[in-house]
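sorry for the late reply, my laptop died twice this morning and i had to redo everyting from scratch. anyway the thing you sent over, i finally got around to it. pasting the sequence first so we're on the same page, its 200 residues, then the predicted structure underneath. double check i copied it right bc i was rushing
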Amino acid sequence: MKLWVGLGNPGTAYAQNRHNIGFMAVDRLAEAYSFSSWKKSGNTAICSGQIGMQKIILLKPLSFMNKSGLPVAETARFYKLPADQITIFYDEIDLDKGKLRIKQGGGHGGHNGVRDIDRHLDNNYWRVRIGVGRPDHKSDVHNWVLSDFSAQDRTDWLATLLTAITDEAGRLADDDQNGFASRLAFVAPAPKSQAPEQTD
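ok and here's the structure:
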């Protein structure tokens, strides 16, 4: 059994934000693999299903991004899962749009959701970092991640990447993290020319 967590903020106002790409990823996985319905309890939304031979629990913390740690840690304890059986999907401004990197352990890189998870959990979990790019000005980062993906983002790479994550999820379930990342780079390459965008 594995626990896969998507990070984001609850509520329709945030649903299409760059910060919510983790929620988008696990929503797509739940739909594609016919998982059970999402069940909300306290500050979590959970569903479960099978990918390949592996049982997967999907989790969306509903406590807002900066307080993601406790729901993740409590769910991991409930299912008696060690950190190395947990994978977190989240947005990464230090990666170009559409690029994906996966690694085990390491620092939080300034991401507040990951920072809070590190406060409550051994940091030996897996991280799927999904690039959303940076705005032109550093001071705009907060507004950037809390703004919706542009129509061009959705057309150029977002839909393709989310589909590829879903299609290749079996590799992740089988602990072939490198194969998962390699396949995504091949079937859903990031857009080639990228310039920083202005925020409104």
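Residues 151-167 form the longest helix (17 residues).
thats about all i looked at so far, will dig more tmrw
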